[in-house]
Amino acid sequence: MGQTIVLTGMVxxxxxxGDYDKRLTILTKERGKITAFAKGARRQNSQLLAAANPFxxxxxxxxxxxxxxxxxxxxxxxxxxxxxxxxxxxxxGFYFLELASYYTQENNDEREMLKLLYQSIRALEHPSLDNxxxxxxxxxxxxxxxxxxxxxxxxxxxxxxxxLTFFSVKYRGTLCRExxxxxxxxxxxxxxxxxxxxIISSDLKKLYTFTVTEQVLLVLEQILRSYWSSYIPHHFxxxxxxxxxxxx
Length: 248
Description:
Blueprint lengths: L2 E15 L3 E8 L3 E7 L18 E8 L4 E10 L2 H4 L2 H17 L7 H14 L6 H15 L18 E5 L4 E4 L9 E2 L2 H12 L12 H18 L5 H9 L3
Parallel strand pairs: 3-5
Antiparallel strand pairs: 1-2, 1-4, 2-3, 4-5, 6-7, 6-8
Helix pairs in contact: 2-3, 2-4, 2-7, 3-4, 4-6
């Protein structure tokens, strides 16, 4: 027999069902990624109309059946309206949602991913932060949450912790001056190395509290782009849209 439960989470995806309903993908703190049906959510007078949209974060009251969830009521704490007013930020936001959806599963402990997603979407609303930097930080921390991040604290060949001068996609991390070369990796300076180490090791609340120069950002983007293309076997549709919309 079914029961009603309350879960905290964010809507990742929505899909129209029939004439008036929606199917929602929600990343929740308690149950991981779930699918729920919102009956009548596409009607203009529906109490679920605003809640059944991507980025909606709050508490979702759901009827839990044997195999499905049905959304009964929602109390939304943040619709991220400022984000929705900026088309460029929206593109980044949808990419963040798709990335979170790819990495999460039902009945997994996805609290860290939910916290990271929420803080990253908030960062996109911050006028002093470059969205490109937010993307780099988010991508790298997603890898941290899932245990797939590169080692940037020692040389991947000899273990040396000093003079880490190159980033090697092949070796999944840094190489020291003696072990690496321009042919084997991307040249690093102290600022780039420190930024990589900070993103990986800092507390989540401190992730989006800094800026970098354009030169540093370009190298960070090169590293993440190369690493993702080599080790993440998935095509993200929202990333393609984001790339097409970004000024060249």
